[in-house]
Amino acid sequence: MAGARRRRGTADAPPPQARLSDGTLARIVPSPYTSGWELEVDGTPQSHVDLDDPAHLHFEYVARMGAVIDLLRLPGQPLTAVHLGAGAMTLPRYVEHTRPGSRQQVIELEPALVELVRAHLPLPRGAAIRTRVQDARAALGRLPAAITGAVDLLVSDVYSGAQTPAHLTSLEFYRAAAALLAPDGVLLVNVADGAGLRFARGQVATVQSVLPYVVVLAEVQVLKGRRFGNLVVAASGAPLPTTWLPRLMAAGPHPAKVAEGAELAAFVGGAAPVADADAVASPRPNSSLFER
After folding, report:
1. Whole-angstrom Cα distance, residue 39 to residue 52?
2. What's the whole-model pTM score?
3. Would you say residue 67 lies in a domain?
4. 155, 65 in Cβ contact below 8 A?
5. CATH code of the domain in which 256 resides
6. Range of 221's domain?
């Protein structure tokens, strides 16, 4: 599959696909909205990739993660990054493109998914992106010793179908993740939730109990719990470089904002940190959310 664009309206071959360990089907299809390709798992869009332009972050929550990444260190400075959940490796490609020379580890549970993406959406030649096929939580304690305490960016974006597994939402998980971070390293978490935001509030409370500086980036209607969507939780042991984020989030295409300080405290309310004993998977969205 050469290049990220192809002509619409032609008779196409069946999309590349692979059967995952839980029986769900992963496939790579042309994006119906823009240039590039989408990775779908069990009918749920998981990633968008534009091979011609790795800086093109089409999914809004991924673009918000990219906005935070852009503020880390000096512009263009290489990063040490760990990505939990591979998808189509959108953010590893973005980091490699915007910060050449970065060292990146990608953890993915499904070998068939890794092979599907490698075969049909190949990574840039020479990119220092190493992929490990392993459970994300188990991998945290098995990465090279030199990484512990030296990771500039840790992205947690793991989904089994349309849900984040429960064991990747707990206090114990976030403690293990935070142990990898450099003193000013940043954790980015994709949290999906809907009306009431009970799950998201618990996730923010849990992250706050591990890392002292936390902000949430989301579309306004999602942040108010009026519709199902993605919230990006950014956290660090050092103050976050958020000066330009409010302006970036307000720029659209859908109005979004950065919740921090008193607003974030109000968002969390009385939610308690979530331990392994009472952790649950993220809510399953209504299937109509992904209808074309």
Report:
1. 16
2. 0.92
3. yes
4. yes
5. 3.40.50.150
6. 59-283
